[in-house]
Amino acid sequence: QVQLVESGGGLVQPGGSLRRSCAASINIFNIYSMGWYRQAPGKQRELVAAITSGGSTNYADSVKGRFTISRDNAKNTVYLKMNSLKPEDTAVYYCNAVVLGLVGRDYWGQGTQVTVSS
User: I need a labelling partner for 70 at 20 to 30 A (CA). Which of 23, 39, 48, 77 fits?
Assistant: First the structure.
């Protein structure tokens, strides 16, 4: 199994920035993809950004050009830089890891609140 530890949530003004991290308990090369989902009150969970072991990235249309996902393989950690934040970005953000095998598995971090408000 994989443990995911998140950090970097908080309160920020519109137009501000946050940098978040998610550390995995195994070598992230053994993880097919890592990234973040978010869920706002009354809304469905949605993918925010993800990065695969091969370096491919995927972003929600709503965050393209504003958010950047990256990884540090030595630290088994992925990072999400969130720029030009909007109130619509307010949500609980959950780190996610997908591990492939005979049976694919999803792992989740504890979730952290991001609030964008003046």
Answer: 39
Which of 82, 95, 92 is closest to 12 using CA atoms?
Answer: 82
DSSP letters spanning 56-116: -EEE-TTTTTTEEEEEEGGGTEEEEEE-S--GGG-EEEEEEEEE-SSS-EEEE---EEEEE
Q: Along the 118 residues of the chain, how does pLDDT read in single tens digits?
A: 899 999 988 999 999 999 999 999 988 878 899 999 999 999 999 999 999 999 999 999 999 999 999 999 899 999 999 999 999 999 999 999 999 877 889 999 999 999 999 9
Nearest CA to 52 out of 31, 83, 23 is that of 31
CA–CA distance, 34 with 14 (Å, rounded to integer): 26
